[in-house]
Amino acid sequence: MTSEGYVTSAETAAAPGGAAADGSSAKSAVPAGAAAWAPVAALTLGIAALVASEFLPASVLPAMASDVGVSEGTAGLAVAATAVAGAVTAPTIAVLLPRTDRRTVLIGLLAAAVLSNVVVAVTPNFPLLLAGRLLLGVAIAGFWSFALGAGTRAAPGRDHVVSTSLALGVSAATIIGVPLSSVLGDAVGWRPVFWSAAGLSVLALSAVAATLPPVPAQPEAGLGMLRQALANRRLMAGVGCIALVALGNFAAYPYIRLVIERNTAGSTAWLLLAWGVGGLAGNLAAGALARRLGLAVVAAPALLGVSLLMLATTTGLPAATVAIVVWGFGFNMVPVATQLWVTRAEPKRVESALSLQVTAFQAAITAGSAIGGAVVDGGGVRAALVVGTAAALAGSVGFGLLRGPRT
Question: How far are the Cα atoms of 240, 325, 327, 328 from residue 277, in angstroms, in the given order?
Answer without folding.
Answer: 28, 7, 11, 7
